[in-house]
Amino acid sequence: MSSSISAQALSELNPLPRLLMGPGPINADPRVLRAMSAQLLGQFDPQFRQYMRDTQELYRGVFETANTQTLCIDGTARSAIETVMVSIVEPGDRVLVASFGRFGQLKAEIARRVGADVRVIEAEWGTVFDLARIESEIRAFSPKLLACCQGDTSTTMLQPLAELGALCRRYGVMLQVDATASLCGTPLPVDAWQIDCVTGALQKCLAGPSGIAPITLSDALCETIMRRRHVEEGLRPADYRPGAGRIITSNYFDLAMIIDYWSDRALNHHTEATTMLYAARECARIFLQEGHAAVYARHALASRAIVSALEAMNLRIFGDTSNKMPNVTGVWIPDGVSGDRVRTAMLDEFNIEIGTSFGPLHGRIWRIGAMGYNARRDAVLTTLAALETVLAGEHHRFTRGAGVDAARAVYQAG
Amino acid sequence: MSSSISAQALSELNPLPRLLMGPGPINADPRVLRAMSAQLLGQFDPQFRQYMRDTQELYRGVFETANTQTLCIDGTARSAIETVMVSIVEPGDRVLVASFGRFGQLKAEIARRVGADVRVIEAEWGTVFDLARIESEIRAFSPKLLACCQGDTSTTMLQPLAELGALCRRYGVMLQVDATASLCGTPLPVDAWQIDCVTGALQKCLAGPSGIAPITLSDALCETIMRRRHVEEGLRPADYRPGAGRIITSNYFDLAMIIDYWSDRALNHHTEATTMLYAARECARIFLQEGHAAVYARHALASRAIVSALEAMNLRIFGDTSNKMPNVTGVWIPDGVSGDRVRTAMLDEFNIEIGTSFGPLHGRIWRIGAMGYNARRDAVLTTLAALETVLAGEHHRFTRGAGVDAARAVYQAG
């Protein structure tokens, strides 16, 4: 035993039983935790390769796509966004970012770092874009790639995407959608909506931990990537010819090599994060077993219950409520109430976490999530009852019990 | 339930009870699996921030360093190597790679992709470098950074490093050591050996899954990185001034931002991979509770047992045995024996995985690992007994029972 290490650091892991009702991460479904407790397999074990193929198939189901290249990136959500960008964008390529919150800013940041010529169009926080504006920007800028969020958790807004893919195809623009925060909380039929690329995450509506990110890539987008295929020294097959395109400036995020690794040729790349792959597989299984429609309805119901409750508590919902994400709700912190003190009381006294937001919204709104495993009646009602108690202690004026009763009524109406 | 998904993909995760005795990944310590089954916490939960600080303290213990910047990268081992390189190397900077196997090639590959002017010096596979050669290359090339493996699992060789850090400091060269495969299997006192940067992994001697990578960075190296600090839009503190150095061309691998995220200022970056952080913390706890000397002795004993057994089975150890990694042993596949058929029989009939190697060694050597949780007498003896059975079936000539008896004698002598 190393004597210089503190007793705290050496203490047994024993997290408090938090109920995570913020913008994510949320609690993992216990089934996912059980799957992650399974013993490891070698990365080229036939059974493990089968689990990888299963995972691909399951996420094709999740994404409602026939895309062969549906797989996982071993990193958090933003690693998947960067993987796609660095593998597609060559220095000077034009990237248009439609930003309606902090995670739009993030995509612009990543695109600039990988060398793109970036134009950002912004929608006021709390609103989304109409298609005409995006179309005129595409005409003016002629980007190679358009990147945008489906749901930007920083503002709780949900960009309608049903027509955007077709618009992009008309102009020969590739569309990259960041569905980190929305995937499995709201419809995203990738093929029907003609989206070239979607990146996701587990820690929101999929009810798993962060650390692995499912993605899907259209065949056309993969062609662009495979033109840049440069297999690393020591692994080149006998028939290897490097792609004509410029080498991708990251090894870890080289999608051509990641595709080779996931393919039946199984060219070595990273060592697949076994436990996270187990988690990704289990999250998709749970989602598909419940079924798309049922899961979306469960999130929509929770959203209605929360909105009704907050309004009944004399609070004002943030932003354009007709384009609100179903899995997270922004609400203005009332005058005279300390947002941080409320969050601290919720956490310390009730073990319930809710969030605030970033930048101009920091300390001005709370974000209350109900997603994945936590988009449950008991979790929603418990959170609202706790919030009422704390708000009453802050002398916020509202009819005590009105919030939780309103939510309960929404659930009883179904 | 989505009807188009196969029953296989939807089947319950249920991995076979493999004993992973190859070059890694190996089996996770059951304590690590239990830690990973703990429920999630929010990334800014005070308890979770404490777990992050614990993890930093524990890895300072593991690395025997006082380095403040000792933390984890949310990706596999190679992501940590790339994180360091992209954060230090500016285009055209000289990087010298001392390569003695496939994972030396990998570092050269990563360095080239991030824009370095790379010179590779190679030691024949199965050997290591002497310091005089490295010194003359440093004098000739004047690199900013020298990168090398401690142990390169592809060849099972272990580069002596005790004097290399001091040599690099004499010439003003930063030293990056890739200890993915050797960390916790053999001494690596980072401060005593004056190493600027070490990257590791869990899936070898630390007995956890891949997907998160502990690293440690000297203060001097951090100064170089922080000169390139550019905080992303939307997160910039009031007192923010961008660093004078060139912006790091990756967002996910931007060590300045990762350091800010891990620091008490807790600037948002990725969403920490909660479950993998739990795993990293538990792996380090287990290691430190057993103690450096005891763990290294356990690996050395397993290595002696395996070498004795293989020699007694009329097999020839690969490479320079005086510089062999203690946690993995390379052995020539005897003439007339199919290496793949033996590995398949081991896997199918005994649920035991051993490895072959890459490139010129593929199909010519086996690699037998005994590391982390699997550097145990029962695992070693069981593996050797199985190998004897399979080799006898392949008509390899040796005295049946000689191998496992030799290993047992080594263990009995202690």
Q: In total, how many beta strands of chain A?
A: 13
Question: CATH superfamily of the largest domain in chain A, called what?
Answer: Type I PLP-dependent aspartate aminotransferase-like (Major domain)
Biggest beta-sheet profile of chain A: 7 strands, mixed
Along the chain, the helix and strand elements of chain A come as HEHHEHEHEHEEEHEEEHHHHEHEEHH
Level-1 CATH class name of the largest domain in chain A: Alpha Beta
Oligomer status: homodimer
Which topology of the largest domain in chain A does CATH recognise?
Aspartate Aminotransferase, domain 2
Span of the ends, CA to CA of chain A: 57 Å
Largest interface, with counts of residues having CB < 8 Å to the other chain, equals: A-B, 101 and 101 residues
Mean pLDDT of chain A: 97
Taking all Cα atoms into account, the compactness measure Rg of chain A is 22 Å
Q: How many domains, in number, for the residues of chain A?
A: 2
Question: What general form of chain A does the structure show?
Answer: globular
Structural class of chain A, by secondary structure, is alpha/beta
Strand order of the largest sheet of chain A: 2-10-9-8-5-3-4
